[in-house]
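Pair request: fold both.
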Amino acid sequence: MDDDILDCMPVLMLSMAFEPLFQTNWRRAISAVIGGRAEIIESHESLLIGTPRGFHAFPLKVRYLSGFIAAKNKKLYNAAPLSKKNIYARDNGRCQYCGVDMMIKACTIDHVIPRSRGGTHGWCNVVLACSICNHKKGDKLISEFKLKLRTVPYTPTINNIIVRQLALNVAMGWACV
């Protein structure tokens, strides 16, 4: 497998207490495992990484054995910045009206309460929508639109987004999102 493809595969680093800390690349994760600072919790079913010390399973989740406590990294529990990529992760890459799965390039952002009717551009008023549903809805309110929201929009934490992005990458066969 090409190194560029492997570099698109993030590895979730966990604290001693299995709390998500951050995403990193496979080289940094394997280095922590080989150095005895971490252990592989979950690995790819078929990928192996060759090192001078032998082969290691390609890590998906790695847990530090000491030193990292997520409580020290309070930024993980702050609200995630509002962006198309983060909305895509929060909504699992699905149109919130019809439920169709989309690639990030094909999706659009819809304001539940249209900005033309006083809606804000914030987490609790934006959802992922396919272009067909977004065009059909236009500047209508949900009560005027035939389809209903599949989930209520909410403000995710950075931690929520990291976990969802990792899950989406695994589900999509590690395509770069």
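--- second member of the pair ---
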Amino acid sequence: MIVPGRSAIDTPRGPSHVDSRTAHIQSCSVLCPLCNRRKARRQCPAVGQAICAVCCGTKRLVEIRCPSDCGYLSAARSHPPAVVQRQQQRDFAALAPTLQGLTDPQSRLLLLLGRFIARHAPQDFQTLHDDDIIEAASALAATLETAGRGVIYEHRAVTQPARYLAEELKRLINDIGRSGDGITTADTAVVLRRIEQGAREIPQPAGGRQSAYRDLLARILNASAADQETASLGRPGTLILP
């Protein structure tokens, strides 16, 4: 109700207006929990609190497991900035050599294993480096190649993160084999060698965390789409690069 002699502008607002204004002011004064430098202005459903726009844009799907219904993720996919488009072009160019010459089932298996590696969490808060990926893929491929020659011998990775990754990949590969998708032991060995090749050949940034290949997989192969890729295994002509 407007009191006589008072304009609509002077009319007191309800408590909800005051609460929302206070929440907005507080959110603008909080630092981003990921970088602790910039103002947190974007509510992140994956982190569970507000983060800054820079961390949202640079750590999306790499360090942050974004849900598919995130509005910022949808907007970025619909209208990626030029710098993101250039990064995507470089990423696809870097991944292309490992896909060349593969059959459709082999290509789909590589993408599935790549997504698994991208979202793999090592035990005991350890860090998974590209050298660990090389070790795990090489050990598994050698085991399968040896079995193909009629010799049962398990080759083992050296580092603990590599051994744990190899065990998890082995379980996934066995599950795929039991599903009757038509992927042979030889196909799997070829794909593992391609993963090893990709991790060996990708340039590492100077002074970086030596995970350029894993970061590449995380950017290209959205980890949240792994279930969709599993469902498409064994179906000819269903390979769709993200």
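Observation on the second member. The beta strands are 42-44, 49-51.
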